[in-house]
């Protein structure tokens, strides 16, 4: 049905590596591979295997769980997107445990879960890419705000900026990006 691999860390693994919970859910215990160093694994590639036909309205969703935290959605694959490299933003251990949590009920290892779900119920196939775009927009906006602030004057309770401020900022932004190829990479990270 599907396979996974940890880029630069493993060979491809098929569904037999996972424990099947029921017909739609599988769990991979990270203790099997890395023990307590699970948070060193930052990416996973999940892919549909040739010959497997997933219904067009379904997707394979991938989740991660640190010990004592709830499962966190990371992304999904579907027929229109049969493979993906997803980031694994491991939650802090115990992040979901309440004050009255029973220590014996806290999972002792990190897990990766895969489940078949309705495509329409998933927020986005790639959560990390969406967060990267949001972070990029925030950093560009912050850069514009800081530039505008340096040209502001105060008129009562209002900030006044020159009419050509956006043109000046954009020209400066473009020139810097041309001069320094690393400049734009700093916005994405």
UniProtKB/TrEMBL annotation:
| InterPro entries given in the database record | Hikeshi-like_C, Hikeshi-like_N, OPI10
Q: Where is the Hikeshi-like N-terminal domain?
A: 19-122
GO terms (BP aspect): protein import into nucleus
Q: Which GO terms describe its molecular function?
A: nuclear import signal receptor activity
Per the record, its GO cellular-component terms are: cytosol; nucleus
Instruction: Please state every residue range assigned to the domain named Hikeshi-like C-terminal.
Output: 133-185
User: Coiled-coil stretches, from where to where?
Assistant: none
PANTHER family per UniProt: HIKESHI FAMILY MEMBER, PROTEIN HIKESHI
Give the family per the record: Belongs to the OPI10 family.
What protein name does the entry list? Hikeshi-like domain-containing protein
């Amino acid at each position: 049905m599907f396979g996974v691999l940890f880029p630069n860390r493993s060979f491809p693994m098929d569904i037999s590596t996972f424990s099947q919970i029921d017909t739609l859910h599988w769990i991979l215990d990270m203790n099997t591979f890395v023990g307590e160093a699970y948070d060193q694994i930052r990416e996973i590639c999940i892919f549909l295997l040739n010959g497997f036909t997933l219904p067009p309205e379904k997707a394979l969703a991938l989740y991660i769980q640190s010990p004592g935290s709830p499962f966190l959605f990371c992304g999904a694959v579907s027929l229109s997107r049969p493979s993906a490299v997803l980031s694994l933003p491991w939650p802090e251990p115990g992040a979901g445990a309440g004050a009255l949590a029973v220590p014996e009920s806290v999972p002792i290892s990190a897990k990766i879960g895969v489940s078949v779900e309705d495509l329409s119920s998933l927020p986005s196939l790639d959560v990390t890419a969406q967060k990267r775009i949001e972070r990029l927009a925030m950093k560009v906006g912050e850069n514009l705000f800081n530039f505008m602030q340096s040209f502001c004057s105060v008129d009562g309770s209002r900030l006044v900026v020159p009419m050509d401020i956006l043109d000046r900022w954009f020209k400066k932004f473009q020139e810097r990006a041309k001069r320094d190829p690393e400049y734009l990479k700093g916005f994405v990270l």
